[in-house]
Amino acid sequence: MFTGSLVAIVTPFKNGKLDERSLGDLIEWQISSGTHGIVPCGTTGESATLTHAEHDRVVAFTVEVVRRRVPVVAGTGSNSTDEAIALTKHAKAAGVDGALLITPYYNKPTQEGLYLHYKAIAETVDLPLVVYNIPGRTGVNMLPSTIARLTVCPTVVAVKEGSGAVQQASEIIQRCGERLTVLAGDDALTLPMMAVGGKGVITVTANLLPAKMAQLVNAFRAGRVDEARTLHYQLYPLFTALFYETNPIPVKEALHMMGKIDREMRLPLCPMGNENREKLLHVMKAAGLV
């Protein structure tokens, strides 16, 4: 259901408030560049520091701007199952095509707890759901066996696999087959994960180079493996540079360099260090972005 290059879009701020004009411009640019889907309010969208009202507004605004031209998959996860259900209900009411739900963080549930968490959401909200596994952020790794258990829920349609392990993605695909779509959660692993059966990526890099990320996925899926590999290595310096510091600090700095948004973010995220900013600028120049 959700395949290709889906951008984990930033949330622009201006003077402490949502910058809807810039967000709308970014969405239009993404769609015109061939991005296959928009993912607001994920990690890259700074969901952790949005108020509930802001979160709801970003989701609703994104749906309004997109106008069904590509899927909108809203981040609605939480470490509270009740809160995740509430956010997912709002997203459904706003008209999204699906919801991206991060594994509960900090409280470190067991595998049984993870299964029950997603099962409760799936049984409460009739909306296509994408499980988001990123143990480096959450402190818990959702195992392939647990993900496979969730295939009993017809609305659990995909997983964003961000463990950093192609082996884990392979096991998910082996266990679930065509029942579940696997999307890369690390831009640098887009090509390797597609090689073992993944169907695309939820990407940070597409914030800067939407056309090339879409082209990479399109090329591989059309059997043009050499072209996809060439694009992978063209983009690889940016894959690395966008994680010189905690995401989304570098991507917001990069978009600011491109004149698309203010670099503003919310504490505890802070402006990029001078040394890393210079390194990022060098990569941006090499990529022809500034």
Radius of gyration: 18 Å
DSSP strand (E) fraction? 5-15%
> End-to-end span in angstroms?
35 Å
> Largest beta sheet, briefly?
5 strands, parallel
Q: Any idea of the CATH topology?
A: TIM Barrel
- The total beta strand count reads 10
Helix content: 40-55%
SSE string, helices as H and strands as E: EEEHEHEHEHEHHEHEHEHHHH
Which stretches of 5+ consecutive residues score pLDDT under 50?
A: none
Q: Determine the structural class based on helices, strands and strand pairing.
A: alpha/beta
Output mean pLDDT.
97
Number of separate domains: 1
Descriptors:
five-stranded parallel sheet; 12 helices; 290 residues; 46% helix; TIM Barrel
Give a verbal description of the structure:
Helix 9 (210-221) runs antiparallel to helix 10 (225-241) and helix 11 (249-257) packs across helix 12. The protein is of the alpha/beta class. It has helices at 20-32, 52-66, 81-94, 111-124, 135-138, 144-149, 166-176, 190-195, 210-221, 225-241, 249-257, 274-286; strands spanning 4-8, 13-14, 17-18, 37-39, 73-75, 98-102, 129-133, 156-161, 181-184, 200-203. The longest helix has 17 residues, at 225-241. The chain has a single domain (4-210), classed as TIM Barrel.
Secondary-structure topology with pairs:
Layout: E1 4-8, E2 13-14, E3 17-18, H1 20-32, E4 37-39, H2 52-66, E5 73-75, H3 81-94, E6 98-102, H4 111-124, E7 129-133, H5 135-138, H6 144-149, E8 156-161, H7 166-176, E9 181-184, H8 190-195, E10 200-203, H9 210-221, H10 225-241, H11 249-257, H12 274-286
Parallel strand pairs: 1-4, 1-10, 5-6, 6-7, 7-8, 8-9
Antiparallel strand pairs: 2-3
Helix pairs in contact: 1-2, 2-3, 3-4, 9-10, 11-12
